[in-house]
Design goal:
Blueprint (H helix, E strand, L loop, with lengths): L1 E11 L2 E6 L5 E5 L2 H21 L15 H7 L8 E8 H8 L12 H9 L4 H12 L4
Antiparallel strand pairs: 1-2, 1-4, 2-3
Helix pairs in contact: 1-3
Amino acid sequence: MLSAYPAVFIKEESGYSVIFPDLDDLATCGQTLDEAFSMAVDCLAGYLYWLQKDGLTAPVPSPLDSVDASKIAADLEVSADGAFVNMVTVDVAEYAKTHFEKSVKKTLTIPAWLNTAALERNINFSQVLQDALKAQLHLD
């Protein structure tokens, strides 16, 4: 399902800032307009994905014509010159499959005796490594 939210693109000296006013002023940026659009899609997908994962409901997007780029720029104390509003769309489920949930293969080396002991106990190496990494990174 396609999700669409208005975003304010603000031209700055070193690129573009992107603000999603409906999403607690969620922000990202890019050095070029193309990069800013790409980053906006990634930012929106990530935000909506984690809302879903946390069992939270995403706010209803505002109509495009109700978002005032000049007001957002003024709130940020930056120039509104070159600021504009554009709808950013993403299929969160599809984006997540490619970017957030995709597994990657890792090759590692462990002592032979440890491998034998783990195999004897039918240890799932991938699950153990994932659990250990999450614990190490405090992601549990």
